[in-house]
Here is the input.
Amino acid sequence: MTLNEKIYKIVSKIPYGKVATYGQIATLCGNPYYARAVGNALHKNPNPQKIPCYRVVNSKGKLTENFAFGGLKVQSDLLISE
Here is the structure.
């Protein structure tokens, strides 16, 4: 399994209404220094309907400006809808 596949598998398990940080996902992948790799993988998310990358936030629990699937407002709206 590639690193991206691991990331997608972990992110797909984030429960409805919950969030996780890039660092938490990286740690679950086996290396807490992979946070940037998590961001890169999510930016290339092949299936946003199945892999809820909008549930991933920065280390301070905040949304980031770089949400690849519609920007900050879309990410915020998706989280609020949950």
Notes: The mean pLDDT is 94. The domain at 3-81 is CATH 1.10.10.10 (Arc Repressor Mutant, subunit A).
